[in-house]
Amino acid sequence: KEGNKYISFLQEANNFQNNCFNNIHKTINNSNSILYLSVLKDGRLAAAENNVLNIYKKNSFYPQLSIREHYQGIPSFTQLNDGRIITCSDDNSMKLIELKENEGYEIQQTLKIENSARKIIEIKENLLVSVSCGKEMKVWKKDDKNRNLEYVKDVPFQNDFSCCNIIRLNDNEFATSSVKDKCIKFWNSNNFDNFKIINNIETHWCLKTMCLIDEDILCVAGMNSMGLHFIRISSHDLIKNENESIGSPISINCINSFPNGLILCSIKDSNNNNNLVKYQCDDNLNLEKIAEKEQAHTKDIFSCVGLSNGMIVSGGEDATIKIWSYFDYFK
Question: Is the dihedral of CA 29, 314, 44, 52 positive or negative?
Answer without folding.
Answer: negative
